[in-house]
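Hey L., structure's done. Input below.
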Amino acid sequence: MAFSMHSHSGQFCPGHAQNRLEEIIDTAISRGMKTFALTEHMPRDSDNDLYPEETSILPLRPRHEAFLVEAVKLREKYAGKIKILIGFEGEWIRPSYAVLVKELASNPVVDYYIGSVHHVHGIPIDYDITFYQKVKEVAGGSDELLFEDYFDAQFEMLKALKPKVVGHLDLIRLLSDEPNRDLREMKGVWEKVVRNLKVIVEQKGLVEINTSALRKGLKEPYPTRSVCEEFLRMGGMLTLSDDSHGIAHVGTNYGKGIEYLETLGVKELYTLEGKSTNMECQVKVQSVTLASVKESFKI
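Output:
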């Protein structure tokens, strides 16, 4: 039962991703996906948070609402072929965003949101090296100090939002000087990582194995091996995502991701059962064997 809990489209994330939502769903079906989550980036509420290619926040909220309408339509259209989950990727730019995330999540068609951190000190950490160097200087001039600030921001996000899925937990590695470094080598950083993992376990959240790290040149998916081993030791639950930004990314590196999970000794993954599939209108965690994911996925 192959699945992905994290995806984007060019239709609703223009300039950031490619292709229409329906094309992406068709591709997911062709790759053997049985569950596929639609999780466009949430709208932001300040022009200060715009990316260089954006000019105004004004189109963002209407685009989000249009996404939800289209997602419901496609969920119904493809109900016999694939289970569609409807969500969004939450942005933790500053604590005030908690109100906006919760407001967006209150829409009854939303099954869940991903808890992600793409900004530290209000500056993007994965957009490009220029922004990364800027925020590193703000943090004190070293990767280690910036990593600590990143995991502190993530801790704030976890406590405030309690997300059902935590996105690319160690995304901060991407543009660092040593992106494949074992986080245990940085004592202060590792203490914060362990603290955050304990919170996720307490909240019964899912940490995604995000294979987009591999297409971006990292040696391992997010999160790195030491993080996964610690999380599993705590009894944590892992899920799986391609973090696709168009049809070219759907299921990308899933073969390597499955091998990675096998080397970690993982036999069971977890996904979610959407509100539309049960009478209680509550999202529940569902277990999926890694063997079934491997069997149904089409390379």
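The mean pLDDT is 96. The radius of gyration is 18 Å.

-- N.
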